Structure formats: C-alpha cells, structure tokens
Amino acid sequence: MGCGLFGRDSETDERAVRPGEPKPSPSGLYTAYAEDGAPQNTVKTLVDVIRDKDGNEVYRDDAAYSTRHGVLFTWLSTEPNQLWILSSDVGTFHVAPDNDGTWTKQHATNVPPEIKDLRGY
C-alpha cells in the first residue's frame, strides 16, 4: 500500500511514508504522514500531512492521491525539509517551507537523481 507501481525494493520500503508508518524529515524537525483521503469512485486515496515536533499540523495536501495508480511520499535526503510526492496518476511534486515558513507544493520540473531512481524515470 502506498507504493503501487514504484516497486518494493528495500530502499523504497525504508523511505516510503505509508499509513501507520510516518517518517521524520532529514532535519528531524518534521514528520510526514500518509493519511487516508476520501475515496474517489470507490478507490482508496492517500493525503500527505506534515507535522512539527509538537504534533502540530504544518501542511496538509489539498489533493488526495489514488492508490490504484501508485503513489509514494518520501523525503529528499539532501534537503532538510523537502517532501516529494510521486504519483503515477498526476505527476511528481515537492513540498517545502518558503522563507516565511509557509509550506507550499510545487510541480517538479527538475527531479533529483535519488527521486528519479525511486520514480523509475
């Protein structure tokens, strides 16, 4: 669950944020969660959520990602606080805080090699 078409190798398994398996950011300041979203045409969906060390929600995606097509949430190891969303259905995105500390999602136009390896580009 949560990996879909992205394979189940040990690196992906270790890195993947799945329901009940949150993962801390490289900085250790935040934790990413995969929470159940509203079903879409009876298909299970996942939503990425980021919380700070006190458990306060700092980001909740406005999109729910279909598990039918494959979705993976993972932190980029070379950035302290950058979560990547890899969806076979709608594309690849990253979420990070801006200079004001507001978390924003951007469509990825330049995908780092470690993410490409997970995505299968």
UniProtKB/TrEMBL annotation:
Ranges of compositional bias, category Basic and acidic residues: 8-21
Chain spans, region Disordered: 1-35
Protein name (Swiss-Prot/TrEMBL): Uncharacterized protein
Native organism: Mycobacterium adipatum
